[in-house]
Write a structure and sequence with these properties.
The protein is α+β, with helices and mostly antiparallel strands. It has two domains: 157 residues, Pnp Oxidase, Chain A; 134 residues, Nucleoside Triphosphate Pyrophosphohydrolase (Alpha-Beta Complex). The strands form four sheets. Strands 13, 14, 15, 16, 17, 18, 19, 20 and 21 form a nine-stranded mixed sheet that branches. A hairpin with a 3-residue loop joins strand 20 and strand 21. The longest helix has 16 residues. It is rod-shaped, with a radius of gyration of 32 Å. The termini are far apart.
Length: 312
């Protein structure tokens, strides 16, 4: 019968399992007997008690600095901010002076505090508890400070920066622009990748709509001007916001796609129903010289008429 004492544990698998628990990243610091600053990277940090105010971290028994931490007067826990991954790496590697490139100061209790961290706790050593191949350091908090800097995370062997990542994500739906390239009563259609046709489209990134449109027109390989907005609609199913612009273009051979007659029959092979209806409307309005701008959703909306002289 297998018991906890006889169970064989794969260290790598156990480390991976522990790594599934997302943690913050800290640098634990102290001073050796001569006053030299020491430190190591740790994610084994936890609060212990509010009254009295206690916390804990653990240090490997194989660490050359074990004595200074386990027998010293105290230590500090510096919770790193998202942009301090390099500091985490520095204190995780062997080095004669890990503090050489780090700005730090003595804390109120005495241990080194690193600048620009998310928070710090300066502690006296309450107890050092041997625990397997590590020693648990329990500290009594003598002073602390927190800032608005988002903390650096760690999970499955990789750093996690949720605040920085959130800034890079779009705040709303994806914005898709469509370039309706018109030349001499024709419109440019390209392969939509589904066996049909569509107008050139592109998603708008952080560079903005104008830059995305300019890049899209450039990819077609003909001269065209960014014209007026012709339709604005949402597709709730895909979570996209569509903006279609009429772009007067030169009658030249494009790098991709081809010009077709701007008519109901000419755009019959357009796969997307909303896009096909939009182009059919443009064909009808081009004959009358009475244009409108569509506002709504993929399925329904309204057309706001704009007086415009018919092109000659």
């Amino acid at each position: 019968m297998t018991t906890p004492d006889t169970l064989s544990v794969d260290p790598r698998a156990l480390r991976d399992a522990f790594g599934c628990f997302m943690t913050g990243v800290t640098v634990v610091t102290t001073l050796d007997p001569s006053g030299k600053p020491l430190g190591f990277t740790a994610n084994s940090f936890s609060s212990v008690s509010m009254d009295p105010p206690l916390l804990l971290v653990s240090i490997a028994n194989s660490s050359s600095n074990l004595g200074s931490f386990a027998q010293g007067k105290g230590f500090a826990v510096n919770i790193l901010s998202e942009w301090q991954k390099d500091i985490s790496t520095t204190f995780a590697k062997r080095s004669d002076d890990r503090f050489a490139s780090v700005y730090w100061r003595h804390g109120p209790v005495g241990s080194p505090l690193i600048a620009e961290v998310s928070a710090w706790f300066d502690c006296t050593l309450e107890q050092a508890v041997p625990a397997g191949d590590h020693t648990i350091l329990i500290g009594r908090i003598g002073a602390f400070e927190s800032t608005s800097h988002p903390g650096l995370g760690y999970s499955r062997g990789a750093y996690v920066t949720p605040a920085a990542t959130a800034v890079e994500l779009p705040a709303g739906p994806d914005v898709v622009i469509s370039a309706i390239l018109e030349a001499e009563g024709q419109v440019l259609l390209v392969d939509d990748g589904r066996g049909g046709l569509c107008v050139p489209t592109a998603r708008v990134g952080r560079e903005g709509m104008q830059a995305a449109l300019a890049k899209l027109i450039e990819s077609i390989g003909i001269h065209a001007e960014a014209g007026s907005i012709y339709a604005v609609y949402e597709d709730a199913k895909l979570g996209t916001q569509h903006i279609a612009l009429r772009c007067p273009a030169e009658a030249a051979k494009p790098a991709k796609g081809a010009f077709v007659e701007l008519s109901r029959s000419g755009v019959a092979d357009v796969t997307d129903p909303a896009l096909r209806v939009m182009l059919e409307r443009l064909a009808d309005e081009s004959r009358l010289g009475n244009y409108g701008v569509y506002f709504g959703t993929y399925d329904q909306g309204r057309i706001q008429r704009i007086a415009e002289e018919k092109s000659k």
